[in-house]
Amino acid sequence: MEVLVINQSEVRQLLPMGECINLMAEALKALSRGDALNPPRQAMWLPDKTGLLGMMPACTGDRKLMGLKAVSVFPGNQGTEFDSHQGVVLLFETAHGRLLSILDATAITAIRTAAVSGAATRLLAREDARRLAVLGSGVQAHSHLEAMLLVRNIKRVKVWSRTQAHAVSFVKQIRERSGVEAEVTASAREAVEGTDLICTNTSSPEPVLMGEWIAPGAHINAVGSSAAQARELDAAAVVKSRLFVDSRSSAVHEAGDFIVPKKDGIIGDDHIKGEIGEVLLGRVTGRESSEEITLFKSVGLAVEDVAAGDFVYRKAMERNKGLWVELGGQRC
Questions:
Q1: Cβ atoms 182, 157 nearer than 8 A
Q2: Which has the closest alpha carbon to 303: 66, 88, 11?
Q3: Could you report the per-residue pLDDT of 12-60, keeping only the tens digit for each?
Q4: Residue 171 exposure: Cα atoms within 13 Å on the Cβ side
Q5: The domain containing residue 152 runs over which residues?
Q6: 163 with 26, same domain?
Q7: What is the pTM of this model?
Q8: Domain membership flag for residue 41
Q9: CATH number for the domain harbouring residue 151
Q10: Do β-strands 131-135 and 156-160 pair in parallel, antiparallel, or remain unpaired?
């Protein structure tokens, strides 16, 4: 049997950010309705903790598909020619378990992660949010900028990164590609103070965003960490925010930004106000006032990868993209 292999550049062509934002909103609604399965991910760390292999399965009910993302995560790749997340998404049909497609996971992860933040921002950020702070300058910083420009009329961007040269390059690209006013700041605090919208996209295991810096009415997308022991926000930032997540079950086991202050007895499970899917379904209220601070904590879900993979797979067949490879699957 033949399997369609779709490479990195083809995924980027077939998965535009604007369409992916809407696609992720539907995937999150399906998860919150109970129409999709998203079991806990598994991770195998290397003995020296320099990297891991993550395995993330999911099943969507509407198209009768199941899939798996197998991805390596190497934070030390920042600043090299290699992405920190590399791997494949495997897409199967559920009638006979036939493998349909092998897709590049680097591009899918980069796009769908920012698209989920885009969906959350569209729900939770103030309509008049114009000033954006981006902490980090890697792949997700670039993807998040694209998503934020689509969902809010951003007029000014401030960028902070631990590697200033990367921040300078990022700001140059912002000016050239979008025409938006952008600047590099000397500190994370300088980037954040007075902004309406904050995206934390770092690989830091320790907080880079402090609660005392955050202005009333701001919205935060925290996506850099997805491990119980790592966090980008200090406890004060989480406490003063109305917290929303992609998945409650995943957040309580994997979101260090929530888990650490919970272990310290500062907050409880009830600090999570709801899933983004629940807000989209009208089951949970999103932003309640112009002065409150909202926080979306993302850990990333396999159901997002499967939904994105399905979308790209169908587009590839329509447009005759990808490479068909004989892999078998029939009875020997």
A1: yes
A2: 66
A3: 999 999 999 999 999 999 999 999 999 999 999 999 989 999 999 999 8
A4: 22
A5: 126-297
A6: no
A7: 0.94
A8: yes
A9: 3.40.50.720
A10: parallel
